[in-house]
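Q: OmpA family protein, please. Structure only.
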Amino acid sequence: MNRMRTKPLIPPLSGRWARIGLILMLSAGALVSAQAQEGGGSNPLTSVRWAEAVYTRTWSIYAEGGLSWATDVWYQNLDAKRSYNQSPAVGGGVDFTIRPWVRVGAEYLWSRYRREQRFSNPDMRTMPVKVYGNYVMNFHNAKLGVQFNFMELWRARRAQWLNVWVGTGMGYSFIKGNEYGIFFNNTMTQNGQTTPAGSDVTVDDESGLTLTGNVRTTNRHEDFNKLYIPTTLHVEADVSRRFTVGLKGEMDWLLSRGGIAPKNYVFALATVRYNFVASRAKVQQGYYEGELSLLNDRVNALQKEAAESRERADREATERQRAEQKNADLQQRLSEYESSMNAQSPAVQISHYVQFAHNCAGISRDELAHLRYFASYMRGHQLSIIAEASTPGPTGYNQKLSERRLKRVVKVLLKEGFAKEDLHPQVAIGEQDGKPDAEGRRVTIKLVK
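A: Structure for OmpA family protein:
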């Protein structure tokens, strides 16, 4: 196949409408993104943003259709129909969205580019004369690409449903078609010589002359394959969780053109995408099931807390009853003390003792309550204190044990408002009285005056 072309390339301005379309799409995308930047957007059913719920590790498929342009094609349009400036384009693809701001995918796109030549004034000086030409090339584009969501620069935007993707990648174009032409050819034979018969030919009548005219058609096939680098701008709007519509602009730069392939392809496409995610009804069902589960857990926790509160109230009631009984006992003892003091009988000695456990210097809760009650009525009087220990055990140890018991009682009395000079004498006698049982494990407090 002869790849040398005699026709000049189409001027760069032949793709001006494609460039204007891309500029308008870029401007619209920038305007819409600016309107969608402010405000917060989150899924009303969950705390997860819409974009993160729909575009995190999800697959999607899409179909697309629209128009395509091919620029700088070697076959020049001459008096062609306007429909030859653009061609239909259809295709589809599959994407995997890793995060709301990046996705990868594969795409297939079919289209064609056409050129037509209609000569209104054929040049009859050169034979054969081309009177019509048609050039049609079908191309199949397959590519792998990566896209980035421009709108994720504003993660807290109000319009979570709107996304503007820009992308690139690498593709391969399979191109195949044919060039069809119609030619007129006029010849004349005179004096045994055949020459083309054009507009500048003169004929004399001195010899025999043969004029021949014919029409010839040609249909030559072409095919070639080229790598290309695509750039895309894709504005998408989520109609629902599963369906997304969009407008897409794409320009493909062909590598190693070789003088026969176009310089680039330009596409203006509409897209419909299906996202493989749970439907809104399933999301709502999961959400409310989760809410019901949380409410059930809360009810169970409240029931358990109520049961514990009832048990605690029962224990407190028992303790309160016990304390009231002890208080009644103390009131009885106090009444006895007051009666003794009012009688001023020299035979009655007001006293109180604090009982200790075996080998212990700590005051129990009951004994501490009795001691404080006694102290509240004896405050302002002088008291004598004698501390003892029972006979079991070494003598020296028992002496120290009685001293610790003495210090513990004195400390409580001081805290209850007694002055140090009111607590005298203070004596720790250990096991001197030789008491082997509980009577030897006491601190006895007596009223001096």
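A: Brief note, in case it's useful. Confidence is low (pLDDT under 50) at residues 1-14, 34-47.
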